[in-house]
Amino acid sequence: MIGRFSLLPEQASTVAGQVDALYFFLVALSAFFSVMIAVVLFAFAIRYRRSRAREVVPTGGGFLALELTWTIIPFILVMIIFGWGARVFVTMRTPPDDAMQVYVVGKQWMWKAQHIEGRREINELHVPVGRPVKLLLTSEDVIHSFYVPAFRVKQDAVPGRYTSMWFEADKVGEYHLFCAEFCGTAHARMIGRIVVMEPAEFQNWLSGGSGSGDMLAGGEKLFEQLGCRSCHQAETGARGPTLAGLFNKQVQLADGRTVVADDAYLREAILNPQAAVVAGYQPIMPTFKGQVSEESLLQLLIYIKSLQAPKVAGADAAAGSGKAHAMLPVHGGQG
Amino acid sequence: MTETVVFEARDPEVNYLNADYGVRSWLFTKDHKRIGLLYLASITVFFGLGGLAALMIRLDLLTPAGDLVGDDTYNKLFTMHGVVMIFLFLIPSIPAVIGNFALPLMIGARDLAFPRLNLASWYIFNIGALFAAWALLAGGIDTGWTFYTPYSTMSSNSNVLSGAFGAFVTGFSSILTGVNFIATIHRMRAPGLTWGRLPLFVWAMYATSIIFILGTPVIAITLLLMMVERAFHIGLFDPALGGDPILFQHLFWFYSHPAVYIMILPSMGVISEIITCFSRNRIFGYSFIAASSIAIALIGFLVWGHHMFVSGQSANASLIFSLLSFFVAIPSAIKVFNWTATLYRGSVSLQAPMVYALGFIGLFTIGGLTGLFLSTLATDVHLHDTYFVVAHFHYIMVGGALMGYLGAIHFWWPKMTGRLYNETLARIAAIIVFLGFNLTFFPQFVLGFLGMPRRYHVYPDEFQVLNVFSTAGASILGIGYLLPVLYLIWSMRYGPKSEANHWGAVGLEWQTSSPPPTENFDHTPVVTSEPYDYSEPVEVKRVA
Question: pTM for this one?
Answer without folding.
Answer: 0.89
